[in-house]
Amino acid sequence: MDSEKEFLANYKQSDYERPSVTTDVAAFMISSEDKESYRKNPENKLRLLLIKRGGHPFRGMWALPGGFLNKDETVEQCALREVQEETNVMPTALMPVGVFSKPGRDPRGWIISNAYVSVISEESVKQVGMDDADDAQWFAVSFEKNESGEYHLELEYGDIQLNAVLAEEKTCFGRTEFSIIDSGGLAFDHAAIIAAALTALRNQAEHYDTIFDFLPEKFTLTALQKVQETIMNVTVLPANFRRMISSYVEETDEYSRGKGHRPAKLYRRKK
Length: 271
Fold this sequence. Notes:
There is one protein chain. By secondary structure, this protein is an alpha+beta fold. Strands 1, 2, 3, 4, 5, 6, 7, 8, 9 and 10 form a ten-stranded mixed beta sheet that branches. A three-stranded antiparallel beta sheet has the order 11-13-12. It has helices at 4-10, 75-87, 190-206, 221-232, 238-245, and strands spanning 20-32, 44-53, 62-63, 66-68, 95-100, 111-119, 133-145, 151-157, 160-172, 175-182, 218-219, 249-256, 264-269. It has two domains: 21-206, Nucleoside Triphosphate Pyrophosphohydrolase; 211-269, Winged helix-like DNA-binding domain superfamily/Winged helix DNA-binding domain (Arc Repressor Mutant, subunit A, Orthogonal Bundle). A hairpin with an 8-residue loop joins strand 2 and strand 3.
């Protein structure tokens, strides 16, 4: 019997067909509208970062930031690098969404994507297209299930509207997979990746783990509640929210001082 050393010496990677590996990142932020108006509370919008592809395939179409894995890096390092190279935005953390490997998902060949969710604060955003991206913009997100069971993913930036239609394939171990009925103008299988990422983000927000990442270190409870409502597309009674969140936050001795508003107590995440 050959030793392991002898086996490895005779092993040839070229004898086996291998896929290329990529990463794709669904980076979200929450933006506040009507900031100049102090007579009403600003409306929050969940936004997704998309890049306009500068080369084939799908040139000119919108896609998630991402790219091919280099030999000397992990998939997580690849995801962070690609987002920064294409958009000049550096995520602080990544949450795995899943591996996307359906045959034919990429017309260039056998290419497997590792997908991630990231949260980026509004203050750190710089809308600059870089590398192989012609443009990078933050699209307002709507994701709803209709009466027939189809999911409608709507992404909007200015006059640009992308409308994808998806069907739920299965849910297992807390992960939901989607099939694409209409890609809505999104490249590759990115409509399915975005749908899976949104579902994962909403699952996390329901348990409060993710909502803190959208806010600065100190925040008001109203701001925290608006984050959860924006992600999950629900409305929660303030008294109920404060009761449910009480074990996750602690008071500070500071207050917010916004123009035209009464000072509000600031809180931080309980360690």
